[in-house]
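User: Design a sequence. Structure:
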């Protein structure tokens, strides 16, 4: 990309955007309907997704259940709230209102 005049660091930004788009499609289904059905079939034939939804949610849960405070401010709180009995989200508004700052 540098040879084409892209600013320094643009490769990382573009790479991050591509990985993000891939994860959004693979995990969340965002943009999946816009993909060519034959291409989707070829990819899933080469890389099957047996019980993918349950398995990825199990992986997310296993990764965070022993350190739930690390999920604050992320979508990972949704996973723990759904799968870990007794999990209580940290309320961002309460954190602000109860901070030691007078105002």
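Assistant: Done.
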């Amino acid at each position: 990309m540098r040879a084409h005049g892209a600013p320094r660091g643009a490769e990382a930004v573009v790479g991050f955007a591509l990985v993000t788009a891939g994860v959004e499609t693979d995990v969340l289904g965002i943009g999946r309907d816009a993909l060519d059905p034959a291409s989707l079939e070829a990819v899933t034939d080469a890389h099957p997704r047996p019980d993918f939804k349950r398995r990825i949610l199990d992986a997310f849960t296993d990764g965070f259940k022993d350190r739930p405070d690390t999920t604050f401010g992320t979508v990972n709180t949704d996973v723990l709230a759904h799968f870990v009995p007794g999990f209580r989200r940290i309320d961002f508004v309460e954190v602000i209102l109860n901070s030691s700052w007078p105002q």
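Helices lie at 10-28, 37-46, 52-64, 76-83, 92-97. The radius of gyration is 20 Å.
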